[in-house]
User: Fold this.
Amino acid sequence: MTCSDEGQPDILVSALGLSTVCALGGDSGGVWVSGGQAQGATSGGLKSNRCDGVYGQGTSYFQLLDDAPNYYGLRLNTA
Assistant:
């Protein structure tokens, strides 16, 4: 994302899920799974996150699984 001269984002992303799972740089695109079923993809987290091992608390955002296929006019088939 790029920012305008006023410090505002050129593109505003909305309707992201919010979680207390700690996410750091490089985690974007990682799959969100609940009960063995994919829910979405990691979109980012706060720069101030300080993860404490695997179970660290923080703030992260994820994009719902249906968003990408809908954008490209695709249909997700599941078994």
Q: What stands out?
A: The first strand starts at residue 17 and ends at 21. The chain has a mean pLDDT of 77. The first helix runs from residue 67 to 71. The two ends are 35 Å apart (CA to CA).
